[in-house]
Design a protein that fits this description.
By secondary structure, this protein is an alpha+beta fold. The chain contains five helices and eight strands; from the N terminus they run H-E-E-E-H-E-H-E-E-E-E-H-H. Helix content is about 25%, strand content about 25%.
């Protein structure tokens, strides 16, 4: 486990890409180690015309999905939006918010990609490697890869592929709504990632921990 406090976030794009390649080699897609009693959701919004990043973390119990803790952190935005380098823009403030939790989550759902990324290091994978926490990426849209259309029923899915490798799951979490792009970030398998995201979607398209974090990060709740 890397100590996030030792990370250098003020990198030029070429340096950030090189760092992604190093960290991607440390991602491990292995079954969850132990039971899950708490699940955290994280999301990031921006204030002051993008100059300040605002991250929210919501910790819920499982299986009830009742809120245990909610925290918000703010940091100056370190990097402009650059496709493929989102984690360097958002992760510093996400880590600050997660550090406010009084208990360690058993699983973290991140708004964004896991390994479904051109260099296999989306924000959930980056987060997981740095923290040592099991993490899943939940993307609302596709960043990379190809796939067939999943069925229209809740729970229908199809693999997301890139160069012949499975990098995620295109998962229908409600009947007839647009699917989510689910990919493991670290310390979970493809199957577990899809199963946990679906289990956390009892009523809506997005899993409850991310829905709650999104409302706070976007100032809608």
């Amino acid at each position: 486990m890397t100590d996030p406090r030792n990370e250098d976030w003020d990198l030029a794009p070429a340096q950030a890409i090189a760092r992604q390649k190093v960290l991607a080699s440390r991602v491990r897609l292995i079954p969850l180690d132990g039971p899950v009693a708490t699940i955290a959701g994280v999301d990031t919004g921006f204030e002051e015309s993008g100059r300040t990043a605002r991250a929210a973390v919501v910790l819920m119990d499982w299986p009830g999905l009742a809120v245990i803790e909610t925290h918000v952190a703010r940091e100056p935005t370190r990097m402009p939006y650059i496709p493929g380098l989102l984690s360097f823009r958002e992760l510093p403030v996400v880590l600050k918010a997660v550090a406010m939790l009084t208990r360690r989550p058993d699983l973290v759902l991140c708004d964004g990609q896991g390994i479904a990324h051109p260099r296999r290091l989306g924000i959930a994978a980056h987060f997981g490697v740095l923290t040592g926490l099991p993490a899943i990426g939940v993307g609302k849209s596709r960043l990379t890869g190809r796939h067939d259309a999943p069925g229209l029923e809740k729970g229908d899915w199809t693999p997301l592929l890139d160069a012949g490798d499975r990098i995620g799951t295109v998962l229908r979490t409600r009947r007839g709504v647009r699917p989510l792009y689910v990919s493991p970030g670290h310390l979970v398998t493809h199957e577990e990632a899809a199963d946990w995201v679906l289990a956390c979607c009892p009523r809506f398209r997005l899993p409850e921990p991310i829905r709650a974090a999104d409302r706070i990060a976007s100032r809608r709740g």
